[in-house]
Write a structure and sequence with these properties.
The complex is a heterodimer.
Chain A lengths: L2 E4 L4 E4 L4 E3 L1 E4 L5 E7 L5 E7 L5 E4 L2 E4 L9 E3 L8 E8 L9 E2 L3 E6 L1
Parallel strand pairs in A: 2-12
Antiparallel strand pairs in A: 1-4, 3-9, 5-6, 5-10, 7-8, 8-9, 10-11, 10-12
Chain B lengths: L4 E3 L2 E4 L5 E6 L6 E7 L5 E8 L2 E4 L8 E4 L6 E5 L8 E8 L11 E2 L3 E5 L1
């Protein structure tokens, strides 16, 4: 079945450091890929998405490129802020298999220190 | 637009009691999804519903759990005879259509946190 694997956290960085959170996926179809962010005590919010190979999703300084050859969708940000501290979830949706719900990774907690 | 509303935000139950969690989707959304998040884990899909229909319940435990989305009113996730292992955050999401590709985004509620004593 479909699956998403994320790097384990927590990831602890200083403000203005470069961020990479790795995400790889397994899917037999042609999935769409997403990054969601969960701030403490809140629900998930869509951060960015990509629907086909080589697409780059971007939002709020975060970027991720859909790499079909490596089945990856790594999240990057050039300069993190304390306000980016949250849990980040990689997810996929494979509509070609008739699956209409998202499959999530286990999440990566990011802690940014001043 | 109030977004996806879930209540209660926090619910405490003793073992053997029933828990009912409610979810009102975003205005205009007729597709509802329930996910469960165990402590320090990711979200696990439970069930996908449209108005008056269960479309996909492949993630629902076979016993004690049920879900509905009536023609009028919120979607309800019901857990009978709760056990400590049911303690988790339960998130509801809604969407405009059932196509969960990039054109259709799930909007999540803030979650209901169930604690079973």
């Amino acid at each position: 079945g479909d699956s998403v694997t994320q790097m384990e956290g927590p990831v602890t960085l200083s403000e203005e450091a470069f961020l990479t959170i790795n995400c790889t996926y397994t899917a037999t179809g042609y999935p769409s890929l997403f990054w969601y962010v969960q701030y403490p005590g809140e629900g998930l919010q869509l951060l960015l998405k990509a629907t086909k190979a080589d697409d780059k999703g971007s939002n709020k300084g975060f970027e991720a490129t859909y790499r079909k050859e490596t089945t990856s969708f790594h999240l990057e940000k050039g300069s993190v802020q304390v306000s980016d501290s949250a849990v980040y979830f990689c997810a996929l949706s494979d509509r070609t298999r008739g699956r209409r719900a998202l499959t999530f990774g286990s999440g990566t907690r990011l802690q940014v220190q001043p | 637009n109030a977004g996806v509303m879930q209540n209660p935000r926090h619910l405490v139950r003793r073992r053997g009691q029933e828990a009912r969690l409610r979810c009102s989707p975003m205005k205009g959304h007729s597709h509802v999804y329930w996910y469960r998040q165990l402590p320090e884990e990711g979200l696990k899909f439970m069930v996908y519903l449209q108005k008056e229909n269960i479309i996909d319940e492949s993630g629902m435990p076979k016993e004690r759990f049920s879900a509905e989305f009536p023609k009028e009113g919120p979607s309800i996730l019901r857990i009978q005879q709760v056990v400590r292992g049911d303690s988790a955050a339960y998130f509801c999401a809604s969407s405009l259509s059932g196509d969960s590709s990039g054109a259709n985004v799930l909007t999540f509620g803030a979650g209901s946190r169930l604690t079973v004593l």
